[in-house]
Amino acid sequence: MYKLLGRATSGNVQKVLFLLEELGVPYERLDYGRQYENTTTAEYLAMNPTAKVPTLVDGDVSIWESHAILRYVASREKAAALYPVDLAARSHVDRWMDWMLASLNPVFMAGFRDAKKPEAERGADTGKNLAAELKILDGQLARTPFIAGHELTLADMTLGPVVRRCVAMPFGLPAFPHVAAWLERMNARPAFVKATAAG
To answer: From CA 3, how far away is CA 123, in angstroms rounded?
Structure first.
């Protein structure tokens, strides 16, 4: 049985929960995070030197970084529909997973911080930068019902928990109809609903 160490409200933990629930494999999630004061212990740091969550424990193997965990579990469970064996198809999944980290995540984190501030103190470009990235995603979803094609993949699992938070941010974002329709498809999946239930 997999052990997933991380708080249920973490977007990075939710990505992994989405995959585990979708696959229907047994797992146990344990509360880890700064608020629990358990990610800087010697035991945790031996598994994950970043002191962040999530960490996945599979027997004697510990994996950190959410995207590495997703790839590991999908490969271990032979979930080729979610993470294709064909290298060209896999590259399409990988590039959207990497886009999330390199392009969307920085503006999401800026938005996450700014959304907590009074409106007058928010960065002038936060909403604009977020909208620019969501426009790229909306363009892709105008072509295919799922991010990397016509079926659910790790790309959707990577982006789902974060994008649902992005579109709810208080920056007066424009409408992204294809993103909205995709989120409806995500919300129709019990695995996604369970994974993101904590907020």
So the answer is: 39
